[in-house]
């Protein structure tokens, strides 16, 4: 055998002796202090249970994180909806204010309409009254001229019946003129 094989065999022999020695010491320790091994065994068992519980907790944490992400997305969507609704509400408020102002203006116009109609009616009535007065004056003038003519014609007719020569009217202004 060569040196490397020999060294390897020696190392294996030393290792086997050390394992044997450790096993004996471990056995003696176990015999002298069995409670340590019970506690060690329980600790290993608890460690395995804790590792399993830790895996379950990690899975639950991942589920909770996924739920949190989903809730955050929902919250973001709700916030966007709320902002959209708030913008719509602001638009509607502005429309209500505009319509209220317009309604108030229309109410004022409606309240003022009777007075406006009275004023317009009064203006038209005053024009009609002026026209009536003008027509009444003209009518009175025409009646006066008509009476003068009737008197003149009656006088002429009497003269003709009595045999007097007919008199021509001295005034030409008694004939009505219809140019106004």
Question: How is this structure best described in words?
Answer:
The structure is a single chain. With 180 residues, the chain is mainly alpha-helical. Helix content is 88%, strand content 0%. The protein has two helices and no strands. α1 packs across α2. The radius of gyration is 66 Å and the shape is rod-shaped. The chain starts with a helix and ends in an 18-residue tail after the last helix. The mean pLDDT is 86.
Summarize this structure briefly.
The chain contains 2 helices and no strands. It is mostly helical and 180 residues long.
Distance between the termini: 162 Å
Oligomeric state: single chain
- Count, helices: 2
Unreliable spans = none
**Tally of strands:** 0
- Globally, the shape reads rod-shaped
What is the radius of gyration?
66 Å
Class by SSE composition: mainly alpha
Rounded mean pLDDT is 86
Helix content: over 70%
- Tell me the fraction of residues in β-strands, as a range: under 5%
Write the element-wise H/E pattern from the N-terminal end onward.
Answer: HH
The biggest beta sheet is recorded as: none
Secondary-structure blueprint:
Layout: H1 3-32, H2 34-162
Helix pairs in contact: 1-2
Sum up the structure in keywords.
180 residues, mainly alpha, 2 helices, rod-shaped
């Amino acid at each position: 055998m060569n040196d490397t094989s020999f060294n390897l065999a020696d190392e294996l022999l030393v290792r086997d002796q050390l394992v044997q020695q450790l096993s004996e010491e471990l056995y003696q320790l176990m015999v002298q202090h069995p409670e340590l091994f019970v506690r060690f065994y329980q600790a290993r068992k608890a460690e395995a249970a804790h590792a399993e519980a830790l895996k379950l907790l990690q899975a639950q944490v991942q589920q909770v994180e996924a739920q949190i992400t989903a809730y955050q997305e929902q919250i973001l969507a709700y916030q966007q909806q709320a902002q959209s609704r708030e913008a719509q509400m602001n638009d509607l408020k502005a429309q209500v204010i505009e319509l209220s102002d317009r309604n108030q203006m229309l109410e004022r116009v409606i309240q003022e309409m009777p007075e406006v109609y009275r004023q317009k009616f009064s203006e038209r009535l005053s024009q009609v009254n002026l026209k009536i007065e003008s027509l009444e004056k003209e009518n009175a003038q025409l009646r006066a001229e008509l009476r003068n003519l009737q008197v003149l014609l009656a006088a002429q007719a009497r003269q003709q019946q009595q045999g007097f020569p007919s008199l021509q009217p001295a005034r030409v202004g008694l004939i009505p003129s219809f140019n106004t």
